[in-house]
Amino acid sequence: MISEIANRIFNQVITDYHQYDDIDHPVQNPYDEETLEHLFYIKNWIDTAQWHMEDVVRNPNINPVEGLSWKRRIDAQNQVRTDMVEFIDGYFLNLYQGISALPDAKINTESPAWAIDRLSILALKIYHMQEEANRLNASVNHREQCQTKLSILLTQREDLSNSIDELLADIEAGKKYMKVYKQMKMYNDPSLNPVLYNKA
Fold this sequence. Notes:
Number of helices: 6
Strand content: under 5%
Structural class: mainly alpha
Low-confidence stretches: none
Number of strands: 2
Shape: globular
Largest sheet: 2 strands, parallel
Mean pLDDT: 94
Order of helices and strands: HHHEHHEH
């Protein structure tokens, strides 16, 4: 099952990252470049680094100039994340290109890779919520609340994993078909953001 592979690799990445806990640590992807596992590893490393960038920029005492620098870095990282999701969707489009959709086939509300993107973020939420549930210098009430939230996140991961596998099975059977739309983010593009092109 694809979701089982994704969840295993996302957990591996998060463990690998926290050996160094360094946003700028180079990625050491152990999987062959031609594999889906390789793409999943990169995907979650991007998400994990961005997760920690978001933590840094929310420091209320951060120097405003430094904060703006981090915000721009997050914007750039988010574009990398979007590009990777679209690349993974390209993998699935290629994988299923020989499948003929049934006459009554339907399109899903989101593509496989965007569902996997949510699974990647869930892996991070689960890891860090588990940390909070076990944090000994936090109050008992805090730990109990985090344990409750953790249980919900684990259920959410199970449900999302099943939904992803069902979607891929339906595509493979011709019951659903893939149609991928590009995100077309405008704020990062100097030719589409009026604040940027009016200055030019």
